[in-house]
Amino acid sequence: MANVCAVCGKGKFFGNRITRRGKAKKEGGIGRHVVKVAPITQKPNLKRIRV
Q1: DSSP for the chain?
Q2: What is the CATH number of the domain that holds 17?
Q3: CB atoms < 10 A from the CB of 22, how many?
Q4: Cα–Cα distance measured from residue 10 to residue 13, given in angstroms and rounded to the nearest whole number
Q5: HSE value, Cβ hemisphere, 13 Å, CA-based, for 37
Q6: Could you read off the pLDDT of 7-49 as tens digits, one per residue?
């Protein structure tokens, strides 16, 4: 299969996976802290259709 849909033009897209630790302030903690930011790629949920 191709990397991009021929009909709608959807392709893979990029984002970040953010890892946090700690307890939220509204739960009585000191707050959530960012530990790691890892780049991720996600593929679209393509279905077979008849055009």
Answers
A1: --SS-TTT----EEEEEEEEES--GGGTSS--EEEEEEEEEE---------
A2: 2.20.150.30
A3: 13
A4: 9
A5: 5
A6: 888 999 999 999 999 999 999 999 999 999 999 999 988 888 8
The angle subtended at Cα 49 by Cα 9 and Cα 5, nearest 5°, is 20
- The strand pairing partners of 3, in sequence order, are none
Calpha distance 45→31 (Å, rounded): 35
pTM above 0.90, yes or no: no
Domain extent, residue 44, equals 1-51
Please state the domain count of the chain: 1
